[in-house]
Amino acid sequence: MDKESINKRFIVAVNYLLSSGTVSGKGVISDSLDIKPSKFSEILNSRMNVGADLIATLSDLYNIDANWLLNGRGSMLKEEQKQSEEPLVVMSASTDDFVRIPIVDISVAAGSGYNNPDYIEEVECISMPASMIKDGKVYLCVRVKGQSMVPSILDGGYLIIRKVDRCEWEGIRDNYVYVVSDMEGKAYVKRLKNRLRQHGFVVCMSDNADKQNYPNFNIYEEELNTIWYAEWYFSAKIPNIQESYYRKQGELEDRLDELTAQFQQFQKALNSNN
Questions:
Q1: Distance between CA atoms of residues 71 and 67, nearest Å
Q2: Which residues pair with 181 in a beta bridge?
Q3: Residue 87, preceding bond cis, omega within 30 degrees?
Q4: Which CATH superfamily is domain 87-234 in?
Q5: How far apart are CA 33 and CA 54, in angstroms?
């Protein structure tokens, strides 16, 4: 077993307990594990390896799956806790031809990321033709916030997303839009490159061409909490995909004009010297 990977998963589990509000602070965890705060801090800062006794105690007290901690297999949470924390997203038929999908105030961001609540409060529902929905799957409708997916997905638009089961993760398709959340409670709307089988992570990519403000980043499998596939997109605005290309073209033309003017001045100076 890779001690470094075990340590990393242990830290992810601790961060989950803190961000989810399961515990009020690191001191509560260290006390419950019967470990000195200084030693606990060394483990969290990756300067000391976590022992098997701490892993066993953490698993027993906080419902963290020991097999996941030790081997990275399965889910971080034990099944009984996962089921109790599953958000309420059950579809109910309004007619024979339509299903209702809850529109939720989930903190999904197409940008820097927002904290997810421990539960999802249903505000209202959107009715979708049953032919557009896969039977037996979990769906949500979420509002996109941010500029990172411009010009294809606009701020204020809505995504109909379908939960991807963990056993399906290796089948995630490159360059399709997904909503991913990590163990720290952050969620992102991104295009993904699936490198789980080869390298153990997914690459999260923004459509916004400004890569200085919206760079690509990786999320490793042990840090992933949920993945949702974006099946449908609704917006009051029509994305003007050509706008960014015209802007880039205009910038290039302006730069070309500047270079042409500089060259003409340089040529004029050479002629005057002759």
A1: 6
A2: 187, 226
A3: no
A4: Umud Fragment, subunit A (2.10.109.10)
A5: 6
- Between CA 226 and CA 57 the distance in angstroms is 25
Overall CATH class of domain 3-84: mainly alpha
**One-letter identity of residue 68:** W
pTM greater than the 0.90 cutoff: no
- And the tokens for 77? 């949470």
Q: What is the pLDDT of residues 31-68, one digit of tens each?
A: 999 999 899 989 988 889 888 889 889 999 998 988 88
Q: What tokens appear for 180 in the block? A: 């991913």
The residues, any chain, with a CB within 8 Å of residue 84's CB and separated by 6 or more, are none
Token code pair at residue 120: 């999802």
Residue 63, Ramachandran bin (φ over 0: left; ψ between -120 and 50: alpha; else beta): left
Distances (CA, A) of 154 to 22, 123, 174: 35, 22, 21
